[in-house]
Specification:
By secondary structure, this protein is of the alpha/beta class. It has 7 helices and 5 strands; from the N terminus they run αααβαβαβαββα. The longest helix has 61 residues.
């Protein structure tokens, strides 16, 4: 074989060795690479499904709401749900309301984000649930079983029992002009507002309250 061909072959040898080395490294590590990528892809797909499901449920919430849910409000809350998916996952809510069926769409929304939502129809049931389980948030109405101050009375019970769980009030007849009890984190008659407040509280719980 002519000497010039040998020289060319020798010149290409380092490049071939690098290619062979890269192939060997890839083959030896491909299991690790695949296993590290698949969970991320799966998580992204799951997140898309969660948010898509939340969008459908939010439409149901809007249909049954006495307060308007505008397209802008819808986009805003869906954007927050998407960014807060990991923060909400595993969060626990106790919802005290004598008509839990009225909150069915919102309960489904939170459960679609992998939150646990337990319901109680009375203050007594709620106190029993709080005594047997740990919750991040208590959601409550105000007028319950004919008592227009049932929700407020429950707050006094929580104080007496040293139950330090933030309380959100979601009541159709809530009038913000009358003020909010000091024990209540926030209160609204708007379902989108409740979703925002739940996200706010879960962010505080996960990351701590921001310094003032």
């Amino acid at each position: 074989m002519p000497e010039a061909i040998w020289i060319k072959l020798i010149g290409t040898l380092p490049g071939l060795l690098w290619v062979a080395f890269a192939v060997i490294v890839f083959l030896s590590l491909r299991g690790t690479i695949i296993h590290s990528l698949v969970p991320r892809v799966t998580a992204l797909r799951a997140l898309g499904v969660e948010v898509e499901m939340a969008a459908h449920i939010l439409d149901r919430v809007a249909e049954h709401s006495d307060t308007p849910v505008t397209p802008t409000m819808r986009r805003g809350v869906l954007g927050r749900l998407e960014h807060a998916a990991d923060t909400l996952r595993g969060g626990r809510i106790l919802w005290v309301d004598d008509h839990p069926e009225h909150n069915g769409a919102l309960i489904s929304l939170f459960r679609s984000m992998d939150m646990v939502v337990d319901t109680a129809r009375s203050t007594d049931e709620g106190l029993v649930a709080l005594g047997h389980g740990s919750y991040d948030i208590v959601l409550s109405d105000i007028d319950r079983d004919g008592d227009p101050q049932a929700g407020i009375s429950m707050l006094r019970e929580l104080e007496a029992r040293n139950v330090d769980v933030p309380v959100l009030v979601h009541a159709h007849n809530f009038n913000p002009e009358l003020g909010v009890d000091r024990r209540i984190f926030a209160a609204t008659n708007n379902p989108v507002g409740i979703v925002h407040y739940v996200i706010d509280l879960m962010e505080r719980i996960r990351f701590g309250a921001p310094e003032v």
